[in-house]
Amino acid sequence: MRPRGGAREAVLADRLDRVRRQRARIAADLDGVPSAEDREALLAGDASLAAVERGLAVLLPEAWHLTSAPPRAVGPGEDAAVLAEIRATASVLALRLQERPGVRTRREDEDLAAAIALFRYAHTALGDGFGDLGPFPA
Amino acid sequence: MVPGMRSGTGDAVVSKHLRLLHDRIRDLQLILTGRAPIIVPTVAEEERFRAELREADLVERALTELVPAFWPVTGTSRRRVGLVAEARVLVRLRALAATLALGLQQPESAPDPDRLAMARALFRWAEAALLPFEFDDNELLPGGTLQYERIVAYAMFGQRWGSI
C-alpha cells in the first residue's frame, strides 16, 4: 500500500510522541530509586529510545525533506505502510554509512546508531517479517 | 511480484542485469586466464580484476539465490522495460539488500557471513547502478517519483561498471 500525502508526517509525529512518552515513563521510574540492576536496564532502554527519537526527529525528516505540516490523525493502514518505509530507509542509510570508506565522523556515528535503532524499532513494530518484502531471513 | 509494479517488471530488470553480470564475469575470466585478445594486465591490475570478479560473483549469487526468495524472478526474461521502471526496481532491490544485510547483522539473527556478503554486494551494486540517476534523498524509498531529466542521463551514459 502506498501512503497518501502527509502520511509520513502524521506517522512520524505519532511515533515520536509515543517514544517521548516511553522515555518520560523511564525517567519517572529512574526517579523512583530502582535497584542497580533495574537502573542499568532502564538506562539501556532509554539510550535505545534516544537513538530512535533522533532517527524520527532528525534523520528521517532530513532524508525525506519533510516540512512541518498541520497535525492530523494517522489513517488506517498508513502506520504499517510508513513503518515499512522507515525500515527500508533506515537500512539504506545505515548500509551507506557502513560501506563508506574512511573513518566516520562523530555525527555519522550518531546517524548510524540512529538508523540501526530505527530499523529495529520499525521491524519490531511491524511484527510482520519483511512487510511487503517477504519473510524475515532466518 | 515487486509490490506496485506490473507483473514481470522485476524479473525483466533482474534478468537484464544478470546478463550484464554474466558478460562482465566472462570478460574478467578471459583476462585473468590470459585468453583476452588485447588486455594483458599488470600485477596491480590483475589484483583489481580479481577483486572485481569476486564482487561480481557475489552479486550474481545474490540475484540468483537471495532475491528469488522474495520476488518471483526467473533471471531469463527478455522483456524490455523503460528506464523509469528499471530505476524503480533498482531502488527496491537496494532497499531489499540493505534490509537483508542489516537484519543479518542483528544479534537475534543466526550468523550467516555468506548471505551477509551477498546482501552487501547487492547493495553496493544497486547503489552504483543508480548513480547515473542522481537521485535526491527523497528517492531512497521504493515507489518514489523519478524525475525525467535524470532518467535521460542514465539513457545517455548507461551502466557504469568501473565503480562496482
Strand and helix map with partners:
The complex is a heterodimer of chains A (138) and B (164).
Chain A lengths: L6 H25 L4 H29 L13 H22 L6 H21 L12
Helix pairs in contact in A: 1-2, 1-3, 2-4, 3-4
Chain B lengths: L8 H24 L10 H24 L16 H23 L7 H18 L17 H10 L7
Helix pairs in contact in B: 1-2, 1-3, 2-4, 3-4
Architecture overview:
The complex is a heterodimer of chains A (138) and B (164). Chain A is mainly α and 138 residues long. Helices cover 70% and strands 0% of the residues of chain A. Chain A has helices spanning 7-31, 36-64, 78-99, 106-126. Helix content of chain B is 60%, strand content 0%. With 164 residues, chain B is mostly helical. Chain B has helices spanning 9-32, 43-66, 83-105, 113-130, 148-157. Chain B starts with 8 loop residues before the first helix and ends in a 7-residue tail after the last helix. Residues 137-149 and 156-164 of chain B have low confidence and may be disordered. In chain B, α1 (9-32) runs antiparallel to α2 and α1 (9-32) packs across α3 (83-105). The A-B interface holds A 2, 62-65, 85, 87-96, 99, 116, 119-120, 123, 130, 132-138 and B 3-4, 69-71, 94-104, 106, 109-110, 112, 115, 120, 123-124, 127, 136-138, 140-143.
Low-confidence stretches of chain A: 131-138
Sheet of most strands of chain A: none
Instruction: Quote the beta fraction of chain B.
Output: under 5%
User: Using DSSP, what is the number of strands of chain A?
Assistant: 0
Low-confidence stretches of chain B: 137-149, 156-164
Question: Which band does the percent of strand residues of chain A land in?
Answer: under 5%
Radius of gyration of chain A: 16 Å
User: Which bin fits the share of residues in helices of chain B?
Assistant: 55-70%
Outline:
The complex is a heterodimer of chains A (138) and B (164). Chain A is mostly helical. Chain A has helices at residues 7-31, 36-64, 78-99, 106-126.
